[in-house]
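Encode chain A's predicted structure.
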Amino acid sequence: MNSGKNILITGAAGQLGVELTARLREQHGAEKVIATDIRNTDSVSKSGPFEELDVMDKQRMSKLIDKYDVGSIYHLAAILSAKGETHIALTWKLNMNGLLHVLDLAGEKKASASSRHIRIFWPSSIGVFGPDIPRERTPQNSPLNPTTVYGITKVAGEQWCAYYHRRFGVDVRSVRYPGLIGNKSEPGGGTTDYAVDMLRSAGNGKTFTCPLKSGTRLPMMYMEDAIKAALNLMSVPPGRISIRTSYNISAMSFSPEELLSAIRQHINGFDVRYEPDERDKIASSWPDSIDDTDARRDWDWKPACDLPGMVREMLKQ
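Encoded structure for chain A:
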């Protein structure tokens, strides 16, 4: 069996990709982590190998897997929730075809003469949930009736992951990320990105116009914990994984008003005005908090950062 020696990341120039690429290069060595994206950015191309890749180009993806002897893929390339509502057809095409190409190639190379086994990480999202869920501590097995095209692609993607594992033995692993908060790259057009924008406004001494109502609570996660979840899940033996769609994971939940209060512990006089838009409608269909019992049981998931700690780190950096 050929498990491959190197790691390939799609969407490496995105919010999660930039920080995950840096962490993987720290752990495994820069030359073993191949960053790919449709655009070349210094944040990922100057610290190690970089290849331009459109994830809808299956043939080029296959060539890169062989060229770099890839054994693990972190497939991050996607259009997010808010942006997806203005690019409906493209969101479906990119989010679905990109994932199917990764799954297809893993299955094909596993069945080939070289018997290359590729382990895949693919992020799902709380966007899979809709307005008919229990909003507090939303269970792992809840109705999946999303209100956005992004959420629809994530529900379909979860089922494709489970299917390829069941039918072809593809080792694909996934978590349902809440809103992610980091400061090393620009947010990618998600509904929860307001939190990063608010923190940046606070750091710049500017009043922030919030697209959500003051009381709209959402599950959130500091980027360090998001990276920790991906790396921990990818490191455990396959036998410990009981869920092949996507694991619920959680860290903290807060509203814009609660985030404002936490920021004011550090910056007196920072202010927010509320002008809810379409993003608030999306957020109102998502959970207030998440039950992640299965992830804690199966692979010892435990977040490290809470709201005060996240605000302190973001404002410091």
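The CA atoms of residues 183 and 314 lie 7 Å apart.
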